[in-house]
Write a structure and sequence with these properties.
- It is built from six helices and 20 strands.
- By secondary structure, the protein is α+β, with helices and mostly antiparallel strands.
- The strands form four sheets. It has a six-stranded mixed β-barrel.
- It is rod-shaped.
C-alpha cells in the first residue's frame, strides 16, 4: 500500500492533465465492464439458475459456466445466438427411448415432447394404418418403450366355380334304364373380393368386400325313362312296359264249355271285339280281361304265356283276373289256375 501510495503521488505530481486522462481511462473501463455484465437465467429441464456473464454468445456463456449441451439436447435460443441482459436460456435434455419397429429395436436419444414429434425428428415414417403404442400423442419419458406395428392390407379377388343343378324329367316313352341328355350343364362363376389385413407381415383379418355372381350356371336337363324293361325268352329280346299287374290267370279254349259261344264254321271263337281268338306263341295271342282293369286292345306280356292282346271279356273275369286262350281244351285244362304278372306294354 505504501508503494502504491508513493506511485500515485508521483503520478499526480506530473500534472493535472495526466490525472484527468487517467480518470477518464478508469471511468471508461468501468463503463465497458458494466455494459458487458449480463444477468441470464438458465432453465434446464424446468430447473432455473441465475448466472452473470460477460460474453456475447449463448455458447460462450454456457461454456464458461460449465454447462454442456448434448447433440440431441434442445436449446433456445440457439448456441450462436447473442446474449442480452435478462435473457432466458432454456435447455431440454434428451432422454433415451427404445423403439421396436420393422423387426429391430432402436435406442434413440430424443428431446422431443411427444412420440409423434420424436418419430418425425428421427425420420421414422408411420402410415395412417400403422399402430403406435403408446399413442403418438403420449409425452416422451426416459426409458420409454415404443412399439410400431406395421399394418398393411391388400385386395384379393377369388373366382369360385358354381356347380350347376341337374333337372331330371320323366319320359314315359323311354326305358327306366335309359337316360338322355337334353341340355348340357355349364358351371357358373362367383367373384369374391376380400380385404386381407397384415400386421408386421402376418395375416390377422379377412373381410369380404363383395360377393358377386359373374356368370350364371346353366342347369343340366336329363330325360329319365319310366318304362320297365322285361327280358323275354325270344332270343334275349327286351320289351318295355308301363306297369305290371299281379293277376289270377285261368285259361279257356273255343269250346262251348269254356266260352258258352258257338264257333265259326272253321271252329274258331269270336272275341268281344269281333276278332277271332288265337294262340300264337310267336306273335300276339288272345286273352280275356276286365276292361275296367286293362282296356281292350292293350298289348301285354303274360308271364309264362307270352305276348297277347286284350281282345276278349268273360263273365267270370272281374278285377285282377285274366283268361288266356289256347286252341284246345286239353291245353286250357293243363294251364289250370296260376298267379302271374301281366306287363302292360308300351
Amino acid at each position: 500500500m505504501e508503494k502504491l501510495s508513493k506511485n500515485l503521488k508521483r503520478f499526480f505530481a506530473i500534472g493535472s492533465k495526466s490525472t484527468f486522462m487517467l480518470v477518464l481511462l478508469i471511468i471508461g473501463c468501468v463503463t465497458v465492464l458494466y455494459n458487458m455484465r449480463k444477468n441470464v437465467t438458465v432453465i434446464i429441464d424446468g430447473e432455473e439458475a441465475n448466472i452473470i456473464t460477460y460474453t456475447s454468445s449463448v455458447e460462450k456463456t454456457l461454456e464458461r459456466n460449465n454447462i454442456t449441451v448434448g447433440p440431441k439436447d434442445k436449446i433456445q435460443p440457439g448456441l450462436d445466438s447473442e446474449v442480452k441482459d435478462g435473457d432466458k436460456i432454456i435447455i431440454k435434455r434428451a432422454v433415451n427411448v427404445n423403439v421396436a419397429v420393422d423387426g429391430k429395436t432402436l435406442q434413440i436419444a430424443t428431446a422431443e415432447s411427444s412420440i409423434e414429434d420424436m418419430l418425425l425428428a428421427e425420420g421414422i415414417t408411420v402410415s395412417d394404418y400403422d399402430r403406435v403404442s403408446p399413442l403418438k400423442t403420449q409425452s416422451i419419458t426416459d426409458g420409454m418403450n415404443i412399439t410400431i406395428t406395421r399394418v398393411t392390407s391388400e385386395i384379393v379377388k377369388d373366382v369360385q366355380t358354381i356347380d350347376y343343378a341337374t333337372e331330371i324329367r320323366k319320359d314315359n316313352n323311354l326305358a327306366s334304364n335309359v337316360t338322355k341328355v337334353v341340355q348340357e350343364g355349364e358351371p357358373g362363376e362367383r367373384e369374391i373380393t376380400t380385404r386381407v389385413v397384415y400386421e408386421d407381415g402376418k395375416e390377422v383379418a379377412r373381410t369380404v368386400i363383395s360377393d358377386a355372381i359373374t356368370k350364371q350356371p346353366v342347369q343340366k336337363v336329363l330325360l329319365q325313362g319310366t318304362l320297365g324293361v322285361l327280358n323275354v325268352s325270344r332270343g334275349g329280346e327286351q320289351v318295355l312296359y308301363r306297369k305290371a299287374i299281379r293277376v289270377k290267370a285261368t285259361a279257356y279254349c273255343p269250346c262251348y264249355e269254356c266260352t258258352g259261344k258257338h264257333r265259326t264254321s272253321d271252329g274258331y271263337a269270336i272275341t268281344a271285339t269281333g276278332t277271332i281268338a288265337k294262340r300264337d306263341p310267336n306273335g300276339y295271342s288272345t286273352i280275356a280281361v276286365d276292361p275296367n282293369v286293362i282296356p281292350l286292345g292293350t298289348k301285354v306280356y303274360v308271364e309264362g304265356y307270352g305276348f297277347a292282346i286284350t281282345e276278349d271279356v268273360g263273365g267270370a273275369i272281374k278285377g285282377s283276373k285274366i283268361d288266356v286262350y289256347f286252341d284246345t281244351h286239353s291245353e286250357a285244362m293243363k294251364w289250370g289256375v296260376k298267379y302271374k304278372n301281366v306287363y302292360i306294354l308300351k
